Amino acid sequence: MRVTFATEPARPDRPNEDFVGATPDAVVLLDGAGEPAGLESGCSHSVAWYSRTLGSALLAELTQSSAPLTEVLAAGIKQVASLHEGTCNLLHAGSPSATVVMLRRTSEALEWLVLADSVLVLDVGTAEPMVICDDRLDRVAAPHRARLEGLPYGSPEYLQARREYITTLRAYRNRDGGFWVAAVDPLAGEHALTGSVPVDTVRAVAVLSDGASRLVDRFGRSTWRQLLDVLEQGGAAELIRRTRTAERSDPQGERWPRGKIFDDATAVYCTLSSTA
Q1: Of the candidates 198, 201, 208, 272, which lies 20 to 30 Å from 252 by C-alpha distance?
Q2: Residues in Cβ contact with 161 at an 8 Å cutoff, skipping those fewer than 6 apart
Q3: pTM of the model
């Protein structure tokens, strides 16, 4: 499996809260859930620390274990929790969290796991690729966005409304009827979307944080098939460049209302030697 990727923070002066890592047979992508200033997290560690620490643990485990991906994720969450349970309040609703996508190639199958709103796109040789995204967060959040979308982006009123919006969503995090992310509860592994496809049916795979998938699923400036073509012909950096161009064309979020005008963006493109 040949893997290429690019990642870029939302702003040069802020840490990138995405994590990406790969081996010849595995890919891990996490998108840390950054939150507005002024909200307590109960944790002395940053979101970037969490995504990097968990991402590294997951990638290491994938190289050593053939356990189901749900078990790999649960073990990774438990391991990272043990690193700061003595210094941080892990019961706090705002404890650092992240989305997770894992991909593992075996001799016969391509196994995948998706938790929260990062996106996996499988090019299986048909006109339309197979797109996997966990939309539970979007479904929970949709009724609560109306007030945000009626306020000028960046205004004091907007910032206060966004803090209230995030606080509301925290009540739905990692519970039945809400949405699931990687945080401190290993049970999140059991709630991830998982599956596998025969390895010889897959031509290529894209793994995207929502800062890169937004070119399609928020801006509508591309189809999934066109996105795969961009990755094949121009590479991951070209996809991020096009995303930044779209973001800059709407600096106040008027055309495409969104919580972050610019977002950390990570794109991974994998081709499989058996089919490529």
Answers
A1: 208
A2: 147, 148, 151
A3: 0.94
